Amino acid sequence: MASHHEPGTAPGTTPDPTPGRTLATALGRTGIWTAALRVTDPATDPSADPAIHDAVRDAAAELEALGYGALWLGGSPSPDQAAFLLEATSRITVATGILSIWDHEAAYVAERHAALDAAHGGRFLLGLGVSHSHMAKQYSRPYTAMREYLDALDAAPAPVPDSRRVLAALGPKMLELSRVRAAGAHPYLVTPEFTAEAREILGADPLLAPDLKVVLEPDPDRARAIARGYLAYYLPMPNYTNNLLRLGFTEDDFRDGGSDRLVSSVFALGDVDAIRRRADEFLTAGADHLAVQVVTTDPLGAIPLAEWRALAEALPLGHDG
After folding, report:
1. For position 6, what pLDDT does the model report?
2. Residues whose CB is less than 8 angstroms from the CB of residue 76 and which lie 6 or more positions away in sequence, other chains included
3. How much is the pLDDT for 82?
4. pLDDT by residue (tens digit) across 176-186?
5. Could you tell me how far CA 125 lies from the centroid of its own chain?
6. In sequence order, what DSSP letters do the residues of 249-288 get, joined into one string?
7. What is the pLDDT of residue 16?
8. Is the pLDDT of residue 134 over 90?
9. Range name among 8-17, 54-63, 264-273 with the lowest pLDDT average
10. Gap between the Cα atoms of 269 and 263, Å rounded
11. Nearest Cα to 195, choosing from 277, 281, 316, 74?
12. Three-class SS of residue 31?
């Protein structure tokens, strides 16, 4: 007979009544989202370049020293890739932003989460998502698939507690699932208007940690060009465009890398003061924490240390910042 306990809570423990609030305090106001720090563990990959791993290790340590509350690892990372960053740091939360449920068996993820969280002082946050149909051959019924994946995490010998997982939620049903089966939501490619609507669905307690793409470039034309170069990758993905259509954008906004209106809505463009003002809009709309993604002409390869340093001086880092 199955044991009876709160979903995501280990038997014999008392569930946290407000896991989202506890997590929001731990994460602070601002973290960094990046796929540039996604590397394989050199201990298990003989082809790994030691110089690249040294650079990634140093960058993760610097993000921690700068005061950011979380390092969101993008690019559909594995638990082992998150482990490398946990080993490189001592205080910052390392989150998967996001781990695709199609790529990793739930039992394995639960086992690795338990081991990493225990080894690193509860600093591993599991961000889960359904990814996209063109990226996963088995993609089908994403909402049902996420529910079943969460059930499997709950049924694992060492369950992943609700308080240690967030969902990449865009639609109302997935946001509601984030409210009842996780600590909250980590939505991607969104606007302040979406953030306000998501807060309404989530209510006051769950964590709301949207991604915010930043182009730290004072020249408006160049900033928009850099933004469009990156945004064009996402515009063929229905999960994103359907959400943007719900927010009032039209098919015309998706042409040629995105209209000025769309680019200005999903990016923060300009100098550090402009970025701070845009960040404040998301926070005022109901975000607890911003996963700031610096977009450059090489966002997946180059490590933008200069931009991270500048933003650490301009953005609120602490929970009450």
Report:
1. 40
2. 98, 99, 100, 103, 131, 135
3. 97
4. 999 999 999 99
5. 10
6. --GGGGGGG--HHHHHHHEEEESHHHHHHHHHHHHHHT-S
7. 52
8. no
9. 8-17
10. 9
11. 281
12. strand
Amino acid at 228: R
Count the Cβ atoms, other than its own, within 10 Å of residue 282.
23
- How many Cβ atoms are within 10 Å of 74's Cβ, its own excluded? 23
Q: Which two tokens stand for residue 260?
A: 């000025």
Distance CA 49, CA 52 (A): 5
Record the tokens describing residue 52, joined without a space: 């690249």
Contact 40, 81 (CB under 8 A): yes
Closest-CA residue to 267 (of 320, 216, 206): 216
pLDDT digits (tens, 9 = 90+) for 47-80: 778 888 999 999 999 999 999 999 999 989 999 9
- CA-CA distance, 300 to 147, in Å (whole number)? 31
Q: Report d(CA 182, CA 175) in Å as an integer.
A: 10
Residue 297 C-alpha from the chain's centroid:
21
